[in-house]
User: Fold this.
Amino acid sequence: MMDAIQFQLNGTKTSYSGDAANRLLDVLRDTYEMTSVKCGCKEGECGACSVLIDGMLINSCCVAVGSVDGCNIVTLEGYRETKRFAALNKAFASTAAAQCGFCIPGMVLAAEALLSKIPHPTEAQIRDGLSGNLCRCTGYNAIVNAVHLAAKGGNGLW
Assistant:
């Protein structure tokens, strides 16, 4: 049997002693109650299960929990405690970017991943950065506007 899997979850040392082959998505939701991590397609196509692993946007449905040993994982539950989230939250609210809300945790983390690399992205870069996340309410223009607004309003945060 493998030793417990150790990782940081939203800044907290975490140990998981279950099956290393379990999907990270299921472990985050079922064991650690990180319900912002949504179960959408289970194939890495929709981005609803997006998390940041060592700063990279990753679909947690395609990751075995055993592969995150030693990694730093951030879900929206942890990210929402940051000033960067406050800037994105304000921008999403002011542009009415959230409709049903199912995709928003993944969209926000995709925006964070983009803005951490490109603090002042063009519209094309924003659309490319969000392209792995599907919105079934077709609210893409408002979401793109929100990311653009957050980049302006959060000047210096990224």
